[in-house]
Amino acid sequence: AKRTLGAAGFPLGTQSNEDDPEVPEGAVIRTDPAGGEQVPQNTPVNLVISAGPTQLAVPSEVIGMREIDARNLLGGPPYEFDVTGVAEESDTVAAGLVIRTQPAVGQLVDRGGDVTIIVSEGTAPLPVPDVRGLTEAAAISALAGFDVDVETTPLDPGDGNDGLVISQSLAPGSEAPEGTSITIEVGDAPEPTTTLAPTTTAAPATTTTAAPTTLAPTTLAPTTLAPTTLAPTTLPPTTLAGP
Q: Among 2, 38, 48, 166, which residue is least crowded by beta carbons within 10 Å?
């Protein structure tokens, strides 16, 4: 426009911007004096330049951008939005990146209007459980999500805390990001020593051999049996009956 006016012998006057949904940004909307109007040569010509549409769609490119890059894009031309950042926990979007916008991408917003970007601050912190008094295996299971380091603490023989967690580096009930290192101390008591009483060896038993015993011979007196006389028995005659 400047070259055209200069070639026609008209100096450039003032320039102003005006929103226009139809004329592309940077293009001339109109002139003053208007085009085609007869004016003396060397009359200054004022230009009204299009600033683009009054409302602009929130661009989708901001999703996944670093916060500073998103602010530069949305706050610069042609949008010139007033940008506010809000932090939000996210298990899927890395810390420092834009999760979404309000209004959502694609929605029309007045030039210079308010746009909020929701920025990830990473995963939510994990609560730290109280693992004191648990076995090493049970404590490690309860601390899933943390980087657990196990140290042992010597105890006296027979101490009841043998094999149990006696302290932890992160306070129970506090919160820490996933993957935070935590140290647990597990008691280690040696086995108690058993002292055996001395053993006394009994003297071997004395074996006594009895002298053989000789039995005196016994003589039995002869016995004479008296003779026994049986009395004769006379049977009475038997008469047979005739036919």
A: 38
Provide the residue range defining the domain that includes 24. Answer: 1-50
- Residue 35 and residue 62 in one domain: no
Tell whether 163 and 135 lie within a shared domain: yes
User: pTM value?
Assistant: 0.47
Q: Give the chain's mean pLDDT.
A: 83
**Total tally of structural domains belonging to the chain:** 3
User: Residue 28's domain is classified under what CATH number?
Assistant: 3.30.10.20
pLDDT per residue as tens digits for the range 67-97: 999 999 999 998 999 999 999 999 899 999 9
- Kindly write down the DSSP assignment for every residue of the chain, as one continuous string: -HHHHHHHT--EEEEEEE--SSSPTTSEEEEESPTT----TT--EEEEEE---SEEEPPGGGTT-BHHHHHHHHHSTTT--EEEEEEE--SSS-TTBEEEEESPTT-EEETT-EEEEEEE--SPPEEPP--TTSBHHHHHHHTTTSEEEEEEEE--TT-TTBTBEEEESSPTT-EE-TT-EEEEEEEE-PPPP-PPPPPPPPPPPPPPPPPP-PPPP--PPP--PPP--PPP--PPP-PPPP-
160: in domain? yes
Note the pLDDT tens digit of each residue in 141-157: 999 999 999 999 999 99
* Last residue within a domain, chosen from 173, 188, 203: 188
